[in-house]
Write a structure and sequence with these properties.
Elements: H1 2-29, H2 43-48, H3 50-57, H4 59-64, E1 79-80, E2 94-95, H5 103-118, E3 122-127, H6 132-141, E4 160-167, E5 170-171, H7 176-188, E6 192-193, E7 205-207, H8 214-218, H9 235-258
Antiparallel strand pairs: 1-2, 3-4, 4-5, 4-7, 6-7
Helix pairs in contact: 5-7
The structure holds zinc ion.
């Protein structure tokens, strides 16, 4: 009888483990790649286009949906045009899909969006992952844009994001009080805020270091996840998949610069 009970318990806990593992697997497939901007638009188009603004508002919801994960999914990452948000940002399209970010950082960014929304501040993604080609383009555009060359920005590791607040359907770049409110939220989440920088002052920029600098990251070191590590049971698979997508974008955008 005792033996039977033991066997029953063993079977029960095995089932639980299998179930938990399958939930973990679900996490891997939830690394979703969706499309918000199939076509690029000019800044004016964007400001006139309410569908675009609706799509910004649905970013958070859309990112939580589960999409089929295929090798070509990276093609569906949302991109925005170079003059979106009323600023010249070069010729290479900006990737602004939240799914292009490191899974841990992506969750921090989702929290930033959610908490700001609760405070009545609507944020839009300007740029998430940035290819080496795009980084080199910014570097070439001058110190106003960046001081970091290709591979030297956290954007090349899916660990930085650029956001902008949207007020009355327009991007607001120069409201110091508003930026400060957003910066405080990001810093409470443990993110480094570009609003503390002077050259360039970059209040829309948030990054996660994971205890590493870009030299460490370039050499393949893995960032340290400070808490809730158990929430990322398939992190290595997710990162490997992400790296394939990043590589595909790198190839596409470096080909653009050779044209
Ligand atoms: Zn940035």
């Amino acid at each position: 009888m005792r033996y039977c009970l033991k066997t029953a318990f063993f079977a029960f806990f095995s089932l639980i483990t299998v179930y938990a593992t399958s939930q973990g697997r679900m996490h891997a497939t939830s690394l979703s790649f969706h499309s918000l901007f199939e076509n690029q638009m000019s800044g004016e188009d964007i400001l006139r286009n309410s569908a675009w603004l609706d799509s910004i508002r649905s970013v958070e919801k859309a990112a939580l949906q589960i999409y089929e994960d295929t090798v070509r999914s990276w093609k569906k990452w949302s991109c925005v045009g170079n003059h979106a948000f009323g600023k010249n940002r070069g010729e290479i399209p900006m990737i602004n899909d939240v799914n292009a970010l490191h899974p841990y950082f992506r969750d921090q960014v989702q929290q930033l969006i959610t908490i700001c929304k609760e405070k009545g501040i609507e944020l839009a993604f300007v740029e998430t992952y940035r290819t080496h080609a795009k980084q080199a383009e910014y570097k070439g555009m001058g110190k106003k844009y960046t001081r970091s060359g290709a591979g030297k920005s956290k954007h090349q590791y899916g660990m930085a994001v650029d956001v902008v607040p949207i007020v009355n359907d327009s991007a607001v770049w120069h409201d110091a009080v508003l930026w400060r409110k957003i910066g405080v939220v990001g810093e409470r989440l443990g993110l480094r805020w570009g609003g503390r920088w002077r050259r360039p002052f970059d209040p829309g920029h948030f990054e996660w270091t994971g205890g590493l600098n870009t030299v460490d990251l370039a050499s393949g070191r893995k960032p340290f996840i400070p808490k809730q590590k158990e929430l990322y049971p398939c992190l290595d698979q997710d990162i490997n998949q992400l790296k394939k997508y990043w590589a595909a974008w790198e190839a596409e955008q470096s080909a653009l610069t050779r044209k």
